[in-house]
């Protein structure tokens, strides 16, 4: 096995074991102690975040999709491994058009403070819907991450929902966007939770970001 295959197998084994919901944190005082490396998932409402977390962890419903987009305004923590090796953080979705200004402001405060103050946060995954490409709300999130100096990967979701030629164009545009941001990882991941496309590679990237290659 080459290095990439070894990493993919290590990641597969880890996520095939214990994955458990730990807690929800509506504000910073409810955060779990920073005992383990963390990797966060960010994305606008309806981008397929819950489905991707379920696909990466090999679970059917570890992360539940909210009935009303933008309703979940908490940081949700999941522990991976027995004993725990890392945590996944499901961040509240952004870009909710119908939310009152107070809720949007509270969201910004929670997310910004979390990003700036969480020393164990190794990487954030910013999910982009392949059918729509990078939107202004995604750029706002990327700017927030740039300012917090938190490294992130761009992940295209729902890649099975568009034609190959369209996907190629969206991928090229997303790669070009990544190059404009200081904290963005240059490699863009292409995934489909439904078809399993790119999931093993993303899982391996999560493992490497959180735990290194040892």
UniProtKB/TrEMBL annotation:
The gene is engB. SUPFAM superfamilies: P-loop containing nucleoside triphosphate hydrolases (SSF52540). The keyword DNA repair does not apply. Its cofactor is Mg(2+). NCBIfam families: GTPase_YsxC. The keyword Cell division applies. Residues 35-212 form the EngB-type G domain. GO terms for molecular function: GTP binding; metal ion binding. Belongs to the TRAFAC class TrmE-Era-EngA-EngB-Septin-like GTPase superfamily. EngB GTPase family. One of its GO terms (cellular component) is cytosol. Keywords: Cell cycle, Cell division, GTP-binding, Magnesium, Metal-binding, Nucleotide-binding, Septation. It comes from Novosphingobium kunmingense. It comes from the Bacteria. One of its GO terms (biological process) is division septum assembly. This is Probable GTP-binding protein EngB. InterPro entries: G_ENGB_dom, GTP-bd, GTP-bd_ribosome_bio_YsxC, P-loop_NTPase. Necessary for normal cell division and for the maintenance of normal septation. It holds the Pfam family MMR_HSR1.
